[in-house]
Amino acid sequence: MWTKNNIPDQSGKTIIVTGANAGIGYETALALYEAGAHVILTCRDQHKADETLNKITEHTGKGSLETGILDLSSLASVKQFAEGFLQTHQQLDVLISNAGVMIPPASKTTEGWELQFGVNFIGHFALTGLLYPLIKSTPNSRIVTVSSMAYVRGAINFDNLKSEKDYDAMREYGQSKLADIYLSLELQRRIEATGDNVLSIAAQPGANKTELSRHMDTDAFAAAVERVGGLMDPWQGALPSLYAAVEPEAKGGVLYGPDQDGGYRGYPAEAVLLPHALDEAVAKKLWDFAEEVTGVSFPA
Ligand SMILES: NC(=O)c1ccc[n+]([C@@H]2O[C@H](COP(=O)([O-])OP(=O)(O)OC[C@H]3O[C@@H](n4cnc5c(N)ncnc54)[C@H](O)[C@@H]3O)[C@@H](O)[C@H]2O)c1
């Protein structure tokens, strides 16, 4: 059984966790700090970032912490964070793209994208690309993109990415999380073509008790919890991301999640992806689209 006790010593590693102030991101950052990593906690505002840093340092850890301000709903914020990071750091061993938003009331990013597509996918795409030169120059580095089983009902509606036609909150969430899988798998294919020593891995946490469900009404939430047979704690939801980030046996181009039987046995297993998530033509189309709208091109 793989648990956070299996995390190898992370001393000397530099790891970014986006959305580190809450839920799964917080538990991910805490475990990596305990294991000795230098963890960059990215949050939208300095107050929350400082609170998180203070809370984590109350635990016994071998690592060190710093904060970074990053709002994934604004490309200017993504660029400012990435440029600052590149100027002040010589290595980036792991980027964990964890931050996310689920079924908010209809809203848009600064650039006009539907909020979930913009934050969960576009923002992380740009962040990954801008940091890629440093990731690539760090030996044995990894990029972990946090998706969700919500990808199952997702599809990329290329003609409605700004929700100009209609808005269906859960449909757009599924779209954004499918886009995260395409990002992760297509990146691994492209990395393999370049020969860079980087792994791109997707993780999905299962169903966990976090603030992600804040926009769900009580009845819908209760029904969803019943459907999935109960919720796990956020530290359990962090295990697939942690496995992808640090486990020597983890493979690129794979989605790791909790056991597929729905039970939690502490082992992040390789998920069997549905065929639409493996559609390389759509993944490539989405990649080209994301490069065009963000102006960020990588990995070559
Ligand atoms: N909780 C679950 O059951 C579950 C299931 C599947 C996938 N996930 C995924 O796990 C990840 C973490 O979710 P969680 O459950 O911990 O939720 P959470 O709401 O507790 O935490 C989300 C984090 O993302 C940050 N965030 C939101 N919008 C942001 C923005 N514009 N810019 C920067 N940061 C932003 C929040 O500040 C917070 O730190 C998400 O990607 C989510 O889609 C969660």
Which structural traits does this protein have?
300 residues, alpha/beta, Rossmann fold, 8-stranded mixed beta sheet, 8 helices, binds nicotinamide-adenine-dinucleotide, oxidoreductase
Describe this structure in words.
It is built from 8 helices and 8 strands, in the order E-H-E-H-E-H-E-H-E-H-E-H-H-E-E-H. Helix content is 42%, strand content 13%. It has an 8-stranded mixed beta sheet with strand order 3-2-1-4-5-6-7-8, sandwiched between helices. It has helices at residues 23-34, 46-57, 75-88, 115-137, 169-194, 218-228, 234-246, 280-294, and strands at 14-18, 38-43, 64-69, 94-97, 141-146, 198-203, 255-257, 269-270. With 300 residues, the chain is an alpha/beta fold. Strand 5, helix 5 and strand 6 (198-203) form a beta-alpha-beta unit. Bound molecules: nicotinamide-adenine-dinucleotide.
- What general form does the structure show? globular
Number of strands: 8
Q: Using only CA atoms, what is the Rg?
A: 18 Å
- Biggest sheet, strands in spatial order? 3-2-1-4-5-6-7-8
Protein name: Oxidoreductase
Organism: Mucilaginibacter jinjuensis
Pfam families: adh_short
InterPro entries: NAD(P)-bd_dom_sf, Sc_DH/Rdtase_CS, SDR_fam
